[in-house]
Amino acid sequence: MKKKGKYQQTIVPIKQIVQQRKQKATNLKKNGINPYPAKCALDKNNSDVQKEFLYLEKGQVAAMKTKVAGRVMSCRNMGKVTFFDIKDGYAKIQIYIRADKVGVGQYKLFKDMVDTSDIIAVEGNPFRTRTNELTIIAEQWTMLTKAFRPLPEKWHGIKNTETRYRQRYLDLVMNNQVKDIFLKRSMLISSMRHKLESLGFIEVETPILQSLAGGANARSFVTRHNALDVDLFLRIAPELFLKRLIIGGMDKVFEIGKSFRNEGIDKNHNPEFTMLELYQAYADYNDMMNLAEILVKFAAEKIGAVVNLEFKKAKMFDLIKEYTNLDLLPYVESGEMLKQVKHLELDLPENASEKKILSQLFDEKIIPNLKNPTFVMDYPAVYSPLSKVKFSQPEIAERFELYMNGIEVCNAYSELNDPELQRIRFVQQMEEKTKGDNGSETMPYDDDFIFALEHGLPPTGGLGIGLDRLVMVLTGIKSIKEVIMFPAMKPE
Q1: Contact by Cβ (8 Å): 224, 231
Q2: Which one of 57, 74, 308, 321 has the fewest CB atoms closer than 10 angstroms to its CB?
Q3: Helix (H), strand (E) at residue 187
């Protein structure tokens, strides 16, 4: 045993605690008590019980009994009486148990067998304490799950951030704020789904395992299908399959699902992430801007987000001119981009491509100045291989990205529907594989998609929203790991 603290509190090694609790489970079985019953019939949760008995005044005991269940969060023994708190998925509620109510034998069994982290059910009359806390006077209790491991220490919880992510189940039990984030995430996704359905969109599912990793410029994860004896890729985007559905006459489609990119991990990136991607026939990127604003505002309202929602629009090269005094459009893929921006002392890797130079300039010099949610429009066509170009200005793509709080949340195009031009773009992408730092982040040549396009894709607007990032923005969270239940972690 180790001693610690002002009052020389005994600290029991965790192995000993686990062994003691396993023995308690064995003793319960020996006494004819199942420590893991299959079911507990409840007609209300703890939050429902709190609402039902709001009418109770201090000292008042309800005439009717109720039944509650949950995890034992804390226990305060006072001789012949014990106060303890149980918590279900909705609320925490206090229980008062004493020997003359449940019987001396049952009370002794409770004190001998019940520990924090156990899950139990309690039945009894609610009353309101002198401190105005709703409490259940236990008349009987039932063990539902005997837990072998204790909860983290009450006052300190789980302080190590990496441990919180690896043991998210404990993070949720101990931290109501964490659970609130994930409840808001669920509400946000649900609200966007229902809004799109109300606008006539149909939810669909497209393959996650794909023979070609297309639809975006990104590194893919590769796996092997043994029966077919072929390599397959976890999708980096559902785009090309969703466009096939537009060709097939499904004029408004959307998908909410996982995409995968074999890239670095940081506060805005996780290799597995959730996207909302949608396509609408007979629309363009201006329609997608309007729709993105509608969806973001609707979701913000549903989760009660307090954020700046005064949307602005600005062209990419106008912003660069405004904040750097550089006119860079003529230098895109000219071989002169680095020379033009060298005096800005950007944080660039060696041999950075011109695409990377432009992206880094935008990240460092432009994004910090975007105080309002901003639709950044009109990107270089050469970096947007799936986007339609402006007819009168073919070097510019009809594309936008939405930035909120310094984070890219949306990406959208007027979709390229010219099969011959799309073929040329794919060829250019293949040629990029031998150049610079784009080699592993270029789209493959998708002959089947070209074949589909040759059957006629109507004018179409497409929009992708990173839902993890949108949750970050609307809840004020700074790391994507805080809004993904089980983020990617390096193995221990």
Answers
A1: yes
A2: 57
A3: helix 176-198
What pLDDT score does 439 carry? 46
pLDDT tens for 267-317 read 999 999 999 999 999 999 999 999 999 999 999 999 999 999 999 999 999
- Written as one letter, the residue type at 220 is S
Contacts of 347 (CB under 8 A, 6+ apart): 360, 364
Distances (CA, A) of 150 to 113, 117, 154, 170, 173: 13, 6, 11, 10, 12
CATH 3.30.930.10 domain range(s) in the chain:
173-311+372-482
Concatenated DSSP letters of 389-417? EETTEEEEEEEEEEEETTEEEEEEEEBP-
What mean pLDDT, rounded, does the chain reach?
94
Is the Cβ–Cβ distance between 112 and 80 less than 8 Å? Answer: no
Quick: pLDDT tens for 350-405.
Answer: 889 999 999 999 999 999 999 999 999 999 999 999 999 999 999 999 999 999 99
Which CATH superfamily is 173-311+372-482 part of? Bira Bifunctional Protein; Domain 2 (3.30.930.10)
Distances (CA, A) of 332 to 129, 337, 425: 72, 7, 16
Work out the angle at residue 374's Cα, subtended by the Cα atoms of residues 372 and 375, and round it to the nearest 5 degrees: 165
> For the domain 2-151, what is the CATH superfamily, name and number?
Nucleic acid-binding proteins (2.40.50.140)
CB-based contact 93:102 (threshold 8 Å): no
Predicted local confidence at residue 441, as pLDDT: 60
pLDDT at 6: 45
* pLDDT value at 30 more than 60: yes
Which tokens belong to 121? 């059910």
268 sits in the region (left: phi over 0; alpha: psi -120 to 50; else beta) called alpha
| pTM greater than 0.85 (yes/no) | yes
Report yes or no: 167 and 230 within 8 Å, Cβ to Cβ: no
CB–CB of 269/484 below 8 Å?
no
Q: Taking phi first (over 0 means left), then psi (-120 to 50 degrees means alpha), and beta for anything else, what does residue 434 get?
A: alpha
Q: Is 130 exposed, middle or buried (0-12, 13-18, 19+ CB in 10 A)?
A: exposed
